């Protein structure tokens, strides 16, 4: 197995490393490295800088701002971004709705939305999940009824990440209540400033405001904002969810946090149990990194590889394990998450618990890890 980078790919890696560490403002990178919450402006600024250099949506068709890179180069781009603590391009735009519009949308929708989506001139939210329709997504109940040149939308979405910033939301809606579950769903683009759209915050255990409920009451949506064909939304959703899991194993970011944890540990590293915990996590991360590289190097047709479920599963487990290690290293200081910036307790100890609590989400979103295990059992192991 040859896993060394060719001289060309190594040069590409150096180019990415230089870009991310010199062009993206230090303050934004510090915010990520110190696990503080990014503002909307910081996320937009970072993505626009990348887009100016053709680095925001490399996996899109070249015509719409993509790069004709190998999977390996996309992987290197992603890893270097994480390693430099650069916020990734907004996933809802870059990995979710963008590729769906580029693949299934009309020419008019592409021209109208793709440049603005790449540049984050439009902030997209994802309106898939509903109460009782998360893992069992096809049970969704939000309806869209055709009325002349419009659809009238009614229902509720939940867990809408950063919906408070959303300009537009891409939604799965039921357009044929008589059809078999999956066959009566369509994919609709909705302007969140439309009358009848209400966004309500959900309070989180880490004290942050990251997710929301979104309500639709008689929201009128122009029919030309339907993506692809009526009642074929499930096919587009499956395509989108496959892409969502690609790049979801945050190897670079987890390695960065683990390396920082070694600094935080100081004298605690002399304790054999602590040292063994580091060694085990480093080995598992190395194995995951090599697996991710192997998957990237072996998938050539641009389609999500089924092994992306393995990466999601293992990647989120390791991310959570590292966040737990940081809490243990902080010890009683990890309880001081409410202390202000003038506290004598180091910042990393104060942020350890909120970060740990926040990362519980990683094994749920993007398809819960139990569901990933079922995908692995069926599509990889053939069980
Ligand atoms: C922080 C966060 C952000 C999110 N952001 C968004 C967003 O922006 N937009 C959006 O549309 N959605 C979003 N989601 C929703 C997310 O995709 C769903 O939470 C996820 O699909 C799980 O669905 P559920 O919460 O309804 O759990 P349920 O489906 O009710 O599952 C509960 C538990 O049962 C397990 N389970 C369910 N079915 C099975 C089965 N068949 N076999 C074995 N175990 C099973 C699950 O794995 C889980 O552990 C977000 C979720 C979180 C936590």
UniProtKB/TrEMBL annotation:
Q: Which UniProt keywords apply?
A: FAD, Flavoprotein, Oxidoreductase
Does the record's keyword annotation contain Amino-acid biosynthesis?
no
One cellular component term (GO) for this entry is:
plasma membrane
Which residue numbers delimit the Acyl-CoA dehydrogenase/oxidase N-terminal domain?
6-119
Gene Ontology MF term list:
flavin adenine dinucleotide binding; oxidoreductase activity, acting on the CH-CH group of donors
Residues annotated as domain Acyl-CoA dehydrogenase/oxidase C-terminal: 231-380
Query: Which cofactors are required for activity?
Result: FAD
Domain Acyl-CoA oxidase/dehydrogenase middle span(s) in chain numbering: 127-219
Q: Which residues form a coiled coil?
A: none
Q: Which family does it belong to?
A: Belongs to the acyl-CoA dehydrogenase family.
Q: What is the name of this protein?
A: Acyl-CoA dehydrogenase
Q: Which organism is it from?
A: Nocardioides panaciterrulae
């Amino acid at each position: 197995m040859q896993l060394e980078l060719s001289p060309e790919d190594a040069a590409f890696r150096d180019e990415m490393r230089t870009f991310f560490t010199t062009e993206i403002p230090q303050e934004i990178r510090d915010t990520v490295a110190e696990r503080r919450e990014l503002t909307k402006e910081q996320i937009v600024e970072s993505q626009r800088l990348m887009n100016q250099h053709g680095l925001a949506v490399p996996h899109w068709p070249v015509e719409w701002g993509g790069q004709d890179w190998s999977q390996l180069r996309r992987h290197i781009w992603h890893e270097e971004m994480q390693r430099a603590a650069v916020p990734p391009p907004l996933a809802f735009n870059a990995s979710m709705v963008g590729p769906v519009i580029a693949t299934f949308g009309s020419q008019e929708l592409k021209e109208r939305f793709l440049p603005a989506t790449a540049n984050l001139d439009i902030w997209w939210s994802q309106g898939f999940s509903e109460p009782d329709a998360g893992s069992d997504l096809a049970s969704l109940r939000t309806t869209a009824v055709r009325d002349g040149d419009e659809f009238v939308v009614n229902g509720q979405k939940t867990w809408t990440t950063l919906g408070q910033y959303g300009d537009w939301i891409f939604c799965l809606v039921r357009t044929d209540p008589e059809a078999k579950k999956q066959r009566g769903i369509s994919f609709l683009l909705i302007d969140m400033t439309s009358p009848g759209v209400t966004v309500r915050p959900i309070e989180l255990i880490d004290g942050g405001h990251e997710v929301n409920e979104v309500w639709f009451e008689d929201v009128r949506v122009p029919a030309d904002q339907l993506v692809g064909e009526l009642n074929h939304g499930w096919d587009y959703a499956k395509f989108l969810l496959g892409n969502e899991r690609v790049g979801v194993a945050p190897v670079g970011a987890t390695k960065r946090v683990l390396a920082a944890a070694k600094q935080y540990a100081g004298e605690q590293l002399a304790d054999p149990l602590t040292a063994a915990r580091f060694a085990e996590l480093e080995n598992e991360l190395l194995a995951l990194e090599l697996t991710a590289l192997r998957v990237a190097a072996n998938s050539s047709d641009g389609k999500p590889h089924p092994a992306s479920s393995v990466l999601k599963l293992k990647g989120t487990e390791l991310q959570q394990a590292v966040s737990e290690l940081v809490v243990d290293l902080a010890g009683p200081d990890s309880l001081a998450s409410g202390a202000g910036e003038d506290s004598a307790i180091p910042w990393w100890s104060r942020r350890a618990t909120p970060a740990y609590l926040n990362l519980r989400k990683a094994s749920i979103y993007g398809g819960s890890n139990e569901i990933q295990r079922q995908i692995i059992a069926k599509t990889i192991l053939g069980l």
